[in-house]
Amino acid sequence: MRKLIIFGLVFFVGINAMVHAQSKYKTGTTKNATTPATTAPATTAPAPNAKTRTKSAYLNNTAGSVSPDTSRPSASPVVNTPAPVNSAVTVRFDTTIVGGFDTKQEVSLRSNYAVERQLTKDRKPLEYDYIREDDQVWSQFVWEEIDGHEKMNQGFMYPGRDDNGDQRFFSILLNAIKYDSVVAFSPDNDLFKTPLTSDQVSNLTAGTLDTVDVADPVSGAIEKVITRKPRFSPDSVYTFRIKEQWIFDKESSKMTCRIIGIAPIAKQLVAGKSQPRTLFWIYYPDLRKSLVKYEVYNPKNYAGRMSWEELFESRYFSSYVIKSTINNPGDKYLNALIKDPLMRLLEGQNIKEKIFNYEQDLWAY
After folding, report:
1. pTM here?
2. Inter-axis angle of helices 169-179 and 284-291, to 10 degrees?
3. DSSP bridge partners of 296
4. If we measure between CA atoms, which residue out of 194, 171, 154, 159 comes closest to residue 290?
5. Sequence-ordered list of residues with C-beta below 8 angstroms from that of 316, at least 6 positions apart, any chain
6. CA within 13 Å, CB half, 326
7. Strand 281-283 and strand 184-185: pairing?
8. Which of 14, 170, 215, 361 has its CA 20 to 30 A from that of 140?
9. Interatomic CA distance for residues 25 and 259, integer angstroms
10. Tens of pLDDT along 247-296?
11. Which sign, positive or negative, has the C-alpha torsion 128, 133, 136, 141?
12. Do the beta carbons of residue 261 and residue 243 sit within 8 Å?
């Protein structure tokens, strides 16, 4: 009997424990589904900051997906492109043109000569003799061209450099416009009506910008070099047109030649053919103060050089006539009147002889 009572108590305790455990499980499930929680409310997870988002975007990016960072505006979209091994890229701006066109004048830190030179800095052009209008008994206008390829005119194309820059005559004209405030005029006519600014003159020769990628042979780094490509070669400007007036002054009884203007002519390719193009006109009396500072190349004696102003006033150059007011009622160039180039040269020589003979015929021996 005692054993039966003990077995019943053990059985009752086991059944009670099983029922209590099952009721507790059901009550928890019902409570989570239908009734509000009686425990302390759970705290909301804070939003990730910018650093966390950037890190997440980086992790996602490495995993193959792109997660844009919305915490701050981006200048450009994120692109998954592998970076090159040598990604250092430098940009060098080089706006100078090889050959003296629009180049910057470099100042020498030491003297380039054994003898101190002061004459070229102090030179000034001589004033012209005044000619009264009543004293000019005869006058004609003549247009001539100077070809730098001729042996006598080799100084016009001398590419050497001096203290004042490139010694090509066209470079001297550009420097006079840029640094000496010499005014250039439109090439439409030779009457000096429309002035040009210094920037307009520079644009005639500057051309367009060109970008070239240059790789360093040692490191392999890429350098972008931006240069300004000239529209034509500096050696293509070897022809210069001059407008001059020949006057016989009865007060001094001599024939006088006064240069009125100078115009450089460039050879440019138009439809596959080389065509001459007048760039601009310069009033020669305004240019004299600049020409006196530059010396002409002398192959015989470097110390015996003359200035460019002396060269033009002494007429130490070779030229051919392209137009004159002598027997030209139509105001035409010789190439419009005479088609044969050889005959044009002979006609130009004939015009020079007429001017020379007029002065000689005034004298009686």
Report:
1. 0.67
2. 100
3. none
4. 171
5. 152, 306, 310
6. 22
7. antiparallel
8. 170
9. 119
10. 999 999 999 999 999 999 988 777 778 888 899 999 999 999 999 999 99
11. positive
12. yes
Rounded Cα gap, residues 24 and 358, in angstroms? 139
For 204, residues 6+ apart whose C-beta sits below 8 A from its C-beta are 231, 279, 280
Looking at the DSSP assignment, which residues form a beta bridge with residue 210?
227
∠ CA 119-122-128, rounded to 5°: 110
CA–CA distance, 115 with 303 (Å, rounded to integer)? 10
| Residues 320/287/244/308 CA torsion (nearest 10 deg) | -40
* Dist. CA 324–CA 246, nearest whole Å: 11
What is the gyration radius of the CA atoms in the chain, in angstroms?
45
Name the one residue in this structure whose structure tokens are 């500057």.
Answer: 206
What lies within 8 Å, CB to CB, of 93 at 6+ separation is 226
What are the residue ranges in the chain where pLDDT is below 50?
A: 19, 21-76, 78-79, 82-87, 95, 97-100
**Identity at 215, one-letter amino acid code:** A
Cβ proximity of 320 and 348 under 8 Å: yes
